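User: What would this chain look like folded?
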Amino acid sequence: MMKVIVASANPAKIRAVSAAFEQIFTAKAVEYRGQACESGVAAQPMDSDETLRGALNRLQAVAAAVPGADYYVALEAGLDGDSSFAWVVIAHQGKLSKSRSASVPLPPAALMALQQGEELGDVMDRMFAQQNVKQQGGAIAMLTNHLLTRAGVYQQAIILAMIPFMQPALFPPHT
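Assistant: Here's the prediction, encoded as structure tokens.
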């Protein structure tokens, strides 16, 4: 059985990983496990570099905490200008791949709250009178009237990050 460890206990992130891997590995039995770990960056990363650093830190932490998995997947959401997005980083057999999710334009009031130190999930909870949006459809669902979800958008980025593992002949090891 293939073992996939997700560097998060967030159900939306675990759902995204399992949905992506089930699309890729249709005939394999896969065990998924979420493992909460620290990003080593701000709770709300404010730019792409900090967001990528958070994903890489989570990946390193989860690989150290749970050795022996076939794949390790870390997702870190953050800001890039006036939009929210996520970095996806995947490790497999000593190789690393990464991809970005789609960008979600944020309302000016949300951006102001983020710049004052709030997290996007909390801001969306308040703006839409919801609870725990970040573990459900996320800001993406709220802002798109549920046409898209956080897990669905992340699923696409996970599949894109898997390309080097799906097409290994096209991505030779670095020498």
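Residues 128 and 142 are 7 Å apart (CA to CA). If you want, I can go into more detail on any region.
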